[in-house]
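User: Run a structure prediction on this.
Assistant: Running it now.
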Amino acid sequence: MFEPEISVCVPTYNGGAFLSETLDCIAAQTFGDIEILIVDDGSTDDTLDIGNRFAATDRRARVIRNEKRAGTSARNANVCVALAQGEWIKFLYQDDLMTPNCLAEMREAGKRGPLVIAWHDYRFEPDVDDATRRLYESLPRLGDNLHGTFATPNEFCDAVLNHWEINFIGPTSSSFVRRDCFERYGSFVPDIATFPDLEYWIRVGSNEGLSIVTEPLVTFRVHGKSISASRNDPSNPKQYQYSLELLALLCKLKTDPFYERLRLRSHSHRVAPRLQTLFRGLASAGRWEALDERFRTKKTARLEYWTAFCEKYPIVVDELREIDADLPAMARLKQFVKSRF
């Protein structure tokens, strides 16, 4: 059996516009002990043809087409991990690029720890509007928040708490992960579709620390059809899903054993009350938006999504009960204040 040191995993779905360029940059790597896994999630464009043509010219490549659609990038990434044979997993999504020395540099950085993130640049395609471009260019960068080539677990936790909700660490394509991390810490969370990478970096990095490559080895391509670009459109109905996924992240912070160190750091840095306020605010807003849509428009999509979410995260229901129990007392207090002043 072929057992490469690195599995370069390329999750794809309708990525024909840029996939050839992505595969070419993998073939150009200076480090060669690799396998190339192209896992297609039922594309309807020429993605599969491009992958098969590439595999016909590079014996290290395998093309796998999911029998049943995974449906999200997180689920498809988990398929990649299950199929990978290498000691290390290097994700490179169908839109993105890496420099020829990327694998060699990240492999060297892996000596410092099992989770490696390299700095990244952006490439903006012509169909990206100015507002989206400014948004990306204003995001905090890894190098601005974690200095040097290794961050201890405590240093990593502090940086995460200082930038809660913001992925300053890097996109999935900037990562290099030892495969046994997925055995110890689990896989990407399937129901966090909008930022599965951030949740996973937090889960692993808060326990293992973070090895950093302080040069931009990866180029993250932003184009009009990219998921991250559309998510930042306020008119996108998936904004509701994004808000609930932030709430799911806070649920994990409260209960997940892998988040124990982060919980302790949040209390020592006195940000726990702020996160609790955010938790309550998102829970209340999630319920209100679901009910408001139901009674205002007669549509039930958000209510169904909310109901399923609460079944998965009962801690949210418990919190809402506490909020509701406090309401009469607050009303009496307001009445008392009005009567006295």
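Residues 239-328 form one domain.
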